[in-house]
Every structure is written in structure tokens, then in C-alpha cells.
Design goal:
CATH class: Alpha Beta
Number of helices: 2
Order of helices and strands: EHEEEEHE
Strand content: 25-35%
CATH architecture: 2-Layer Sandwich
Number of domains: 1
Distance between the termini: 11 Å
Strand order of the largest sheet: 4-5-1-6
Number of strands: 6
CATH topology: Alpha-Beta Plaits
Shape: globular
């Protein structure tokens, strides 16, 4: 499972941080940071979801008020 985070879309509500430890607050930028995320495009970050943290990653995606987070299954299909 992978998570994709569009940091440019992020508005810094930090609801993802409350739902999953895979995100941190960047108070200087006023945006969240995806821990271990690799930048694939301008401000688009992708990271593997560790085993046992899948539900938390899904909650983080659902909690984002601007849909800056997407979760994909192992086949690359978006599930959240």
C-alpha cells in the first residue's frame, strides 16, 4: 500500500497528523510533511505504508479537508 501526498494542496489543518504518525507538522511552512516521502513531482510525495498502519493511513486521507492525500493498494488502484 502506498500513500500520495500533494503538499501544494495542503492547507495545514494537520488533521492527518492527528490520525497517523506518518505525517508531521511543519509549522514554518504551515503544511504537513509525509515522513519518508519521496518527491515524484513538484510537491507530490509518495511513501510506502508500513505493515499494520494501513487503517491509520486511510483515516489520514479521509480526514484531509482538501483531499491532498490519496491511498493506493498494491495494484496501484486508489482506495481512498
Amino acid at each position: 500500500m502506498q500513500v500520495e501526498f500533494d503538499r501544494d494542496t495542503c492547507i495545514g489543518m494537520f488533521q492527518c497528523v492527528a490520525e497517523w504518525d506518518g505525517f508531521e507538522k511543519d509549522m514554518d511552512a504551515g503544511k504537513a510533511v509525509l515522513d519518508g516521502g519521496d518527491e515524484t513531482e513538484d510537491d507530490i510525495f509518495v511513501a510506502d505504508v508500513p505493515d499494520g498502519e494501513e487503517l491509520d493511513a486511510k483515516f489520514a486521507a479521509r480526514a484531509c479537508p482538501v483531499d491532498a492525500i490519496a491511498v493506493y493498494d498494491d495494484d496501484g488502484e486508489q482506495i481512498v
